[in-house]
Here is the input.
Amino acid sequence: MSNISKAFENGKAFIAFITCGDPDLETTAAAVRMAAKNGADLIELGIPFSDPTAEGPVIQGANLRALANSITTDDIFGFVKEIRKDVAIPMVFMTYANVVFSYGAERFIKTCAEIGIDGLILPDIPFEEKDEFEPICIKYGIDLISLIAPTSQNRIAKIAKEAKGFVYIVSSLGVTGTRSEINTDLASIVKVVRENTDVPCAIGFGISNPEQAKKMAGISDGAIVGSAIIKILEKYGKDSPKYVGEFVKSMKDALR
Amino acid sequence: MTNPNGRFGIHGGQYIPETLMNAVIELEEAYNYYKNDPQFNRELSELLNEYAGRPSRLYFAEKMTKDLGGAKIYLKREDLNHTGAHKINNVLGQALLAKKMGKKRLIAETGAGQHGVATATAAALMGMECVVFMGEEDTIRQALNVYRMRLLGAEVIPVTSGTKTLKDAVSEAMREWTSRIADTHYCLGSVMGPHPFPTIVRDFQAVISKEIKAQILEKEGRLPDAVIACVGGGSNAIGSFYHFIEDKDVKLIGCEAAGRGIDTFETAATVNTGKLGIFHGMKSYFCQDEYGQIAPVYSISAGLDNPGVGPEHAYLHDINRAQYVPITDEEAVCAFEYLAKTEGIIPAIESSHAAAFAKKLAPTMSKDKIIVVTISGRGDKDCAAIARYRGENIYE
Here is the structure.
């Protein structure tokens, strides 16, 4: 049984995304602890990449700020090892294929398992390319998370059938970032997912307030929020953890 | 050379967001249908011949040959194509394909601006909307091409993310494509990106080597000893090499932009300084740091200023079928000036990298040997920048 399933045991899951090292790893650590304390069920930790092609301007900015601080993959491994001592909820890494590949896929994934990371989200690894990393992930007990998009259509069933951890449903076309409206027929997508797997599914991209989170979690098993949290970190810098905590609480309360 | 999964050896593949997967599958299916459709091929030939001015000349550079005192040098004059570069070959093919697929809008990335101009041109011709993403840095380096694109009716969006150059323009075009797929075709300008782009672009550029082969057989009665072309992503090079890959006696030489030198960080020589990675939809060689962060590459040539190289080139390098040599800014600028003075031809600074290697190679070969150098584009766009490089303070 995947450790990630624990994230879906407390009602609808609230999944928080935070880019490691923006503005620094101490702040990231404090923000993760505040998010966990205030009800986050799973943390997605972003490992910054120079060219994050699936991200909108907000998360792009976080990636570049973290890299400007010379944050490396090794720094982040050390940081996770440290926070794992007191943060018990499931945590996954979200990064790009080249970060894993260049580190050496086996060395990277083995380290993930050692430091207590439960899964890996790689937006530039679609179903057709998952053999690049999935066999190694299975060897070390790391869930390689599958993504499903509004354009997936005939692909949903086959992706869902092989999904592990949770299914990440992308709410809208385009890149990450807050949106005022989400128009995709997500209920139909969720239906096909559920017909093909018992793995829970959560919706992300464009969710920024409790109403949207409630609506998205209402049709799935959880809501994923990134850009809205990164905006708080961008605005308050080192002072942001308590605001992140307040925000997470308001979101999780809406899902209860 | 492509296997079913779009691999060239270990390179290539489809490393893209799920959102784009059905779009590239749709593109592959359409391409596989139309590439064998006689009507499509008739229309494309008509466009290439009547509109773009093909076949391009294979010109014997007699003065250059005499001056260098070695192998005979022929120049494949892609600079004489409509819009001034080889880019139009691919763009006419993709625009026609997009139109057949029912797309109404073309988006493209551009570095030097040549691919952007070609895409804007095809869009104007075929009555399609056009949006071109160009690094802000490049919009300044190539201001004239920005104006050209606008004149042709395209919208040019300066990209301010990352290093504000070609790689960021590609990233931004990919982001745009994920947000609007139904009516939009991403007209990728090089043999890069996810499958099927490296194969489609190569096939549309392969007309270069097909013509070279026929022309050299007519003029010399035999194949050349070497074919030389510049490599950024590698579209004019793969186009120049393709029909010679099976002819093992023909040396294939790609010239990479070494910038200030391959022992400096200010370089874009991917094969010579990069390592294997996954980026922009493909596995290939990339300039990157030890943690896989893509390097901010540099070259005087905006068109070669690319941290990656097409997967088929990576494969030709792996199997030792093609050789990739680094050419510095200074060597390229010298060749730019040399070709102007010797042959009265002003080559693009990109193509000058190929001419620079020909200058080194020809004197080492005997007079009965033959070299073909692809002049991928014309150099008018570069004159102001080269003048500034030489300390003359002129602006367009």
Summary: Chain B is about 45% helix and 20% strand. Chain B has two domains: 8-48+86-201, 55-84+207-389. The mean pLDDT of chain B is 96.
